[in-house]
Amino acid sequence: MLNDPLFIIVALACAVVGVILILGISNFGKEGIDNAKRSNKFMRWRIIAQFIAVVLILLFVYIRRQMGGE
């Protein structure tokens, strides 16, 4: 499975979601309106990245099933 390029892309997409989540959460603890705006921006980007990751996961599962689960 590690030789499958789509699996690697899915894993990277999940890692990106995790990094964005950590960045957003790290800003929640800081005071100030700018930090609050930055946290909201990170959380919006997380939702977009998470949507892309879920679509890629579904695509990966669909393709693997079509190939017979190799």
From TrEMBL:
Keywords attached to this Swiss-Prot or TrEMBL record, sorted alphabetically, are: Membrane, Transmembrane, Transmembrane helix
Output the InterPro entries linked to this UniProt entry: Hypoxia_induced_domain (IPR007667)
Record PROSITE patterns: HIG1 (PS51503)
Q: Where are the transmembrane segments?
A: 6-25, 45-63
Q: In this protein, which residues make up the domain named HIG1?
A: 1-70
Q: Which domain of life is it from?
A: Bacteria
Is the keyword Transmembrane helix assigned to this protein?
A: yes
What the entry lists under NCBIfam families is as follows:
twin_helix
Q: What is this protein called?
A: HIG1 domain-containing protein
Q: What phylogenetic lineage does the species belong to?
A: Bacteria, Pseudomonadati, Pseudomonadota, Alphaproteobacteria, Rhodobacterales
